[in-house]
Please model this.
Amino acid sequence: MAAFPVDVVVMAAGKGTRMKSAKPKVLHRLGGRALAQHVIDTAAGVSARSVVVITGHGAEAVEAGLCEPAGVALKYVRQEPQLGTGHAVQQALPVLADDGVTLVLSGDVPLTQAATLQALLDLSAGERLALLTLDLADPSGYGRIVRGGGKDGGGEVLAIVEQKDATPEQRAITEIYSGIMAVPTRLLRAWLARLDNQNAQGEYYLTDVVRFAVADGAVVLAHRIADAVQVAGVNSPVQLAELERAYQRRVAQALMEQGVRLADPARLDVRGSLVCGPDVEIDVNCVFEGQVTLGEGVRIGPNCVIANARIEAGATLQAFTHIQGEKAGVTVGPRAEIGPFARLRPGAVLGAEVHIGNFVEVKNSTLAAGAKANHLAYLGDADVGERVNYGAGSITANYDGANKHRTVIEADVHVGSNCVLVAPVTIGAGGTVGAGSTISKNTEPGALSVARGKQVSVANWRRPAKKKPA
Ligand code: UD1
Ligand code: CA
Model:
């Protein structure tokens, strides 16, 4: 905990015209999370007391689309109409307490690191105005940091001048304001009361607080960083894609530092959280969504899509395996072998050493240790016992057109190829179902059950011949 309370204000009222999308800009996703959610979650990383999101364009959608991080109070304030960044922060003043420092962030700047914000807060020390700044080879469009006492980079900060208000000399300044500041709330309140919109854009500029601070003899400090990605905003699909790559590089780097072996860090997409044990190997073009855990020694082949799943130690997922855990989740037991081309849907719970092969779909079913379904099969709403062998082309008919029913296949059953098990039905332990059977009645343990047309063979059968033209 810092020595002073921190309240975060996230500006998210702007329209985002350049996204050319009906969806509010700050709800566009990066790494599977809304842009503004990244910002809110980073606020939690500096132990903020509250986060106040300022909404305007698409306010209802934005408010419905974000969630409160643990330990931080999330509040919303509307800004109607949008008269500038200073006007935006003014809307938050009624819910900000004077004992704290306000950290101003933008909902469209997703990759700022908590450590950077903490350094800025430390610089403010609860009583000074601290600005996050950066040198850019091309500073156009940004507010410039005007310093006194000699050369660029030399003296104390005097003002932030917006591009449109800047003189040619000021436009040559390469140090820009990132849009992020930490400011003692009681000072912010007094300074915002003095804002006007007498400038090139007719807007209320938050950046004018710097002039007021200087006029009041208050200390203004800049925390100057070098990593542009941390303050990069998203204004267009191109920038969104660039930051998505930057985010994925960061995730890949962190995984490799933990010991995960990635075949190619540039061909990994994590859209959620991926937790890996030791000695995990991930081949190219895999996508991880939601919450995914990979146990020790797990190997993931190329082109797998894995969402909301727990893969236990020593399991192997071969190429093109698709796991969609959704809410119920999917569990793959230790040393299981899945794929290639397997599909595991919500509620698939596979025990140790289970084998699921190509074009096999499993939904809302448990498979006990050692069960196998190696080719072209469907198991839905089934409980499959240990060591069951489930033949190619067999399916559970779990849906009668109105309701779903369960199929129970007890331990050591052998289901032949191309069988239909019409649920509800139980195949008794150790039983055998002959190939091509349609089973709608329970079978006894140990029984052989065959339910198909008897074979008829006609000796010396002559096939019809084509008529000769007359
Ligand atoms: C602002 C800064 C500029 C800085 C730049 C960094 C001001 C006056 N200028 O520029 O010095 O270099 O950020 O990116 O602050 N927003 C609202 N309500 C409004 C206006 C904006 O919520 O009335 C939100 C936007 O949705 C956005 C953020 O504030 O998330 C910043 O607005 P934007 O227009 O991108 O910033 P600039 O004014 O261009
Ligand atoms: Ca603007």
The mean pLDDT is 97. The two ends are 101 Å apart (CA to CA). Residues 146 and 204 are 19 Å apart (CA to CA). Residues 237-257 form the longest helix (21 residues).
